[in-house]
Design a protein that fits this description.
CATH class: Alpha Beta
Distance between the termini: 12 Å
CATH superfamily: P-loop containing nucleotide triphosphate hydrolases
Low-confidence stretches: none
Largest sheet: 6 strands, mixed
Order of helices and strands: EEEHEEHEHHHEHEHEE
Radius of gyration: 18 Å
Bound molecules: adenosine-5'-diphosphate
Mean pLDDT: 93
Number of helices: 7
Length: 241
């Protein structure tokens, strides 16, 4: 998290000339290059069909590119066997989804603790860390509530706590305000901004231009290409450190 003397930061995610084609000759991504440095908060914005979901899947190591390279903390995704890929994903990435994806029968604490299932921590420690994460998102008072006892905004806070609890290198938030009214969505974005100021690296994937415009960096996707990037942070020389 500390910048080097030149003000650069290590890359957490790098895409180099990434193409993704689907059967039937659809080229969903056509040569995307993108680097995310530690500590950034950026929006990846584009209309429906522009390739955002495909890009999110590749950034999240849930799919592999047809060509080009995806590096997560310097590890080339294509060179890792599935088990190592899952381990790297579990350690490096946190996911926030539009529809929250909480387990209904579990309390907020237990939902957040599922973010640590592959961490190797014992259950008691996982629950303690989950309560800390709920505190960070302002939900300490709701720790023992079930999802149906929470508002939409509170559910999304729980989901954010689950994404954060393992201290991932990068949080990928897919339309995090898409299922919320505008006021609640605004509050969730304020929370993401606050987490960013305390050092969390966050990429928000959205079709909402106004939302993206409120973020420090915007990467615009159109027809599977980066149409505009308002600017990456300077990287350390050895970006794969
Ligand atoms: P977005 O998330 O911006 O709406 P997508 O990544 O879902 O964009 O889609 C980009 C393009 O790739 C679209 O033309 C879409 O129809 C196509 N596409 C996405 N997934 C598949 C798939 N599994 N098979 C074939 N075409 C796909």
């Amino acid at each position: 998290m500390i910048a080097d003397a030149a003000g650069g930061r290590p890359a957490v995610l790098e895409l180099e000339d990434v193409w993704k084609s689907y059967p039937g000759g659809v080229h969903a991504l056509r040569g995307v290059s993108l680097t995310i440095a530690e500590g950034e908060l950026l929006g990846i914005v584009g209309p429906s069909g522009s390739g955002k979901s495909t890009l999110l899947h590749l950034m999240g190591m849930l799919d592999r590119p047809t060509s080009g390279r995806v590096l997560v903390r310097g590890h080339d995704v294509d060179r890792l066997a599935d088990r190592r890929l899952s381990a790297l994903r579990g350690r490096s990435l946190g996911f926030v989804f539009q529809q929250f994806h909480l387990s209904e029968g579990m309390t907020a604490t237990d939902n957040v603790a599922t973010g640590l299932l592959y961490s190797g921590f014992p259950p008691r420690r996982r629950r303690a860390m989950a309560r800390e994460a709920l505190d960070r998102v302002g939900l300490a008072q709701r720790a023992e509530h079930l999802p149906h006892q929470l508002s939409g905004g509170q559910k999304q806070r729980v989901a954010i706590a689950r994404a954060l609890v393992g201290r991932p290198s990068l949080v990928l938030a897919d339309e995090p305000t898409g299922a919320l009214d505008s006021r609640t969505g605004h509050d969730v974005m304020e929370l993401l901004r606050a987490l960013h100021t305390t050092g969390t690296t966050i990429a928000v994937i959205t079709h909402d231009r106004e939302l993206a415009d409120s973020l420090p960096r915007r990467v615009e996707i159109l027809d599977g290409r980066v149409r505009h990037d308002t600017g990456a942070w300077p990287l350390t020389k050895d970006s794969t450190a």
